[in-house]
Amino acid sequence: MKILLQNILIIDPNSPYNNQHTDVLIEKGMIAQIGKFISASDAIVISGTNYHVSPGWMDLHAHLRDPGFEFKETIESGANAAAKGGFTAVLAMPDTLPVVQTKSAVEYIIKRSEQLPVDIIPAGALTQDLKGKEMAELYDMHLAGAKAFTDAEHPVHHGGLLVRALMYANNFGGKIHLRSDEETVSQGGQMHEGIMSTMLGLKGIPALAEELMIARNIYLAEYAGAPIHLMGVSTEKSVQLIREAKSKGLEVTAAVHAYNLFWNDSVLEDFDTNYKVNPPLRGENDRKALLDAVADGTIDCITSGHSPEDIENKVVEFDLAAFGITGLESAFALACSSDKFSAEQLVNALSIQPRKITDMVIPVIKAGEKANLTVFDPTAKWTFTLKDIYSKSKNTPLVGKELTGKVIGIYNKGQWVINN
User: Fold this and answer.
1) Which of 46, 206, 256, 420 has the greatest number of beta carbons closer than 10 A?
2) pLDDT tens for residues 173-210?
3) In 3D, which of 305, 266, 260 has the Cα closest to residue 286?
4) Domains plus CATH for the chain?
């Protein structure tokens, strides 16, 4: 099958055709030709007035629930959701049942996803059973193909263990990704602590809970002389701490979930549990600080925070509802809604930096290279419907909402997946 991307704007800082309108011919999984007015009568033609193409995007934070919770999501349905959202690669969190903490568990995920158009990359558990007490088999998982180690939404409270893990993983190039939450401060919290939580009578999650752990994690990484990646950053002060660390030359990278760029805590006034997420939707000053941090590079990448939940865990009283939102299909549109970012900045945060952080090969749009591409229109307006949810779970407040920024399709591993 041949694919001809016609008069498309290439957004790729590593391509000689960056910021140029041209044709791109894809054949047998490779970029066969790039240039003006390519003729290929037997090709599927993809064209649009404002179509862009970039190296395929990678999401560094998605819960695919498989194995163990397949009623919420499977590797296959998660890959479909990722393709819908423009991602050609996804880092799958290890909080499954059983936990991804062995060589065989890593191999299971890789094997299950071999034929899928989206690369599902396993993240291995940092500690055994995600309990934060004993280090998991990091090196064995690394050899099997794990590209990061994390306890997902479970913060690592044991400072000594974390320092040893940082030093150990650094010996073989292993990367540690951390969720920062001082649970003795946030315990029982339902939403961001602020005026809205007081008005609603809900126990708040103080910004302090995140900021304390961000500061500690940065300090421990500095002591260990090892890189660290901070997941799900959500507060203004956290951004300041990360900016300061980077100014000192520390190997600190950070990510923000797309929903924290799009909403603030005011949307919770109707107790819609679809907005109940962790890290929580913060105040407007926090949201603006996060946008600025992505724009200036303090925050390296934008993640989906994809956390599918079934009806039984979401359509209940607010304090009983699980945290989480399905985000793979909508992450780009949420990020694209801001006028803070150019197309180049979005591609950097969605494609280039995630692969740098995980030491993965960055696709290049150049003749003779493997085709790993995302085609998108950053200005297209569209209405999000149930048909746009490819995840097995539907826990999102976006149904019926108009969004800006649409994914046209992806090409990866010789497969073209187009959005209807």
Assistant:
1) 256
2) 999 999 999 999 999 999 999 999 999 999 999 999 99
3) 260
4) 2-52+367-418 (2.30.40.10), 57-357 (3.20.20.140)
